[in-house]
Write a structure and sequence with these properties.
GO molecular function: DNA binding; sigma factor activity
Keywords: DNA-binding, Sigma factor, Transcription, Transcription regulation
Pfam families: Sigma70_r2 (PF04542), Sigma70_r4_2 (PF08281)
Shape: globular
Strand content: under 5%
Largest sheet: none
Organism: Candidatus Afipia apatlaquensis
Number of strands: 0
CATH superfamily of the largest domain: RNA polymerase sigma factor, region 2, helix turn helix motif
Order of helices and strands: HHHHHHHHH
Number of domains: 2
Radius of gyration: 16 Å
CATH class of the largest domain: Mainly Alpha
Family: Belongs to the sigma-70 factor family. ECF subfamily.
Amino acid sequence: MTTNENELKALMLASLDGDAASHRALLERLSRRLRAYYKGKLAGIGRGAAEAEDLVQEAVLAIHIKRHTFDPTEPLTPWVHAIARYKLIDFLRRTRTSFADVSIDEADLVMAHDDNVSAESAYDVRRLMERLPKNMRCAIEAVKLDGQSIAQAADRCGISESAVKVNIHRGLKALAALIIREMRT
């Protein structure tokens, strides 16, 4: 796990134990990360900072309300990212963003839209990620979970920048298929 993951998880665990100061610190740090995440995603479809701020508030509130569903044996950032992603997908649905308005780089945001899946889902993201090939897993973890740029992910994974993009796209589709398969069993 990264240092950032370790720090955030330590704050979450202290928060779950009733430490109010740790809970405030956790939500402040997550707010900064979520703000950057949403601004980046929304800028790609011509949306503004005010909408990003609304999404930050929605995600932080969901994290606060659903913190009891966090499994302390698992990493925190995939759990937070799942909530953030579903809030973004809900926003895109609510605002009736057309698929034509979404660039090919952002297509994964609207492709995995299952109305029965919510942020509280109990899917073990880490276990599903382990079922992906190494390069796919590395690219998704670097860019989607750790917030690295495509260039940074390419260095980290030892592959080209285009391979990072392809692995992310294919990996997210594979994860969606794995989730659907598990839902049916």
